[in-house]
Amino acid sequence: MSLEQINTTNFDTGELKQDLIDYLKSTGKFDDFDFEGSTLNTIIDLLVRNDLYNAFLANMLANQSFIASAQLRGNVVAHAQTLSYTPKSKTVSRAIVDLKVIPSDKTNLDMTIDVPINTIFISTVGEQSFQFTTIDTFLMSLDENNDYVVNDVTLYQGQYLTNSFVHIAGEPIVIPNKNIDTTTLKVIVNEGGDLFEYELASSISDLGKDSQVYFLSENYEGLYQIEFGRDLISKEPSTNAVVTLSYINGEAEHGNGAKTFIAGTTIGGYGNIKITATQPAYGGSDREDTESVRFLSTKNYQAQDRALTASDYSVLIKKEFPFVESIKVWGGEDNEPPQYGKVFVSIISEDNLTRSVKNNIVSYLKTYNVGSITPEIIDSDPIRLDLTVLFAVDTKRATKTFNQLSQDISDVVSDFSSTHLESFNGYYNDSKLSDQIMALRGVESCDITKRAVKTLRRLTFNNPAYDYRFDNELVPGTMLVENIEFDSSATNQYLADDGNGNIIAHKTTDSEQTEVIGTIDYATGALSFTLNIISDEPTFDLSVEPKHENFYIYNSKYLFIGNTKFETMELFPNKR
Predict the structure, then answer these.
(1) CA 559, CA 382: separation in Å to the nearest integer?
(2) Do 268 and 262 touch, CB atoms closer than 8 A?
(3) Does the predicted TM-score (pTM) go above 0.85?
(4) Is 207 helix (H, G, I), strand (E, B) or coil?
(5) Which of 153, 164, 177, 490 has the smallest CB count inside 10 Å?
(6) For 213-272, how does the pLDDT look when each residue is reduced to its tens digit (9 = 90+)?
(7) DSSP readout, 103-137?
(8) Nearest in space to 138 (alpha carbons), one of 149, 123, 125, 122
(9) In this structure, are residues 255 and 284 in contact, taking their beta carbons and an 8 Å threshold?
């Protein structure tokens, strides 16, 4: 065997060893050696082991050299830094409140009092308590009742910390807390008694020899660090200047949803404090994970700090608002009906987006808009899929009962919903779910039927029109609304379509009565009807049966699997 005949891509130790032995024998110099028992056998083992070590090292070096294949977070972050991308830190929950301090003695009062930095507030979500605090000073003024008031005070969940460092010119300053929320970071430089506040450099327009800005990055240990411009691209504090960093250090759990607060300290010496949350706590999210850094860093570089394409908007929002779980962006020309000059954004997040949060997102996007495009936030539009799963059990192969298999299938359905649906990027496919169910041991056959359910809000004004569009072809005669009341003297009230495109209101008084109240287009899934609903419930469910095995989504819609029923098919007999 010649040297060229050695398989250099084979990493099986046994085969690699045999290749080396065959090569040595082919040289004619080791014909009489016993490779199984001689010392040469040990030497060959060492050669094989050394080759495997070198192959592993070469593979790791190659992988870590590219952001697409790097495995270590430090290396992924280092590659992202070359694309001017800084991984998002932990983001703490924040709430907006109005404060009122009620003095017991309303005579001889000062005109104003301060809400100082690090004023503590406590809130409870469920059975867990969270600490919130202020990072700015707020001025309270007397109102007409001689109470001190201030509105729009932002509270941040976590601890307010301050670290001071003696600066060495050219050296980075490492922040010693991994749970820092870098959006709350303030950098104050004391040079000879003069205080200067440095801002985060966010674009090239911030840079200049005298610009008082700092640069933020994540180091190899996973800690954030700040650097200055070395008097080249921005001002560098002098050696021995004192740099003070203040920030919020986040708690382990997020306080999203907190809306009732009590003061943990007095304000201006007063303890009677009324707190009204105008924006419940939102936005708490964990530190950006490695896969997100890998994905967003390249897309952020592609966006080039401007919002031009749909993906640009997505990247900018995910970068600035990490609590966003899924996002969909489409141009006004693709809207139904078209609205030119607009771009529409729909967002799925753990908490419902309030008006103030939407306004924050729109204001942020406007700074990156190109031309006169107007961004608009559209509420996400969930559609529930209720499934009926019929399955047969092969009693010869099955090791579980019908109920146990039903639980296993339920777990598969739940995982399918969270993995393939519940975002703007997924669509429902019967075959994919059936294949996963059929992979369970003992399931011989299965059949899935589904109904799409839309929860509509009851309108309280007179003769309201209800309009909805499923954007999928429907089976005629399958639309149904139950548990609804529109005539106080009637029983058995429900809505259904007649299979010919008409929506019928059914009710029973002395006899069954019907009335056409709307229409339905089976090809597009668009329906419209007018009805005065007198039920007490604020919402009602409208369900239809899709015609095809695939159920697609468009624009602000997304799917999730809700109720799942299990029924047995005829059992197959034991085979002998």
Answers:
(1) 6
(2) no
(3) no
(4) coil
(5) 164
(6) 999 999 989 999 999 988 888 999 999 999 999 999 999 899 998 999 999 999 999 999
(7) -SS-SS--SEEEE-TT-EEEEEETTEEEEEE-SS-
(8) 149
(9) yes
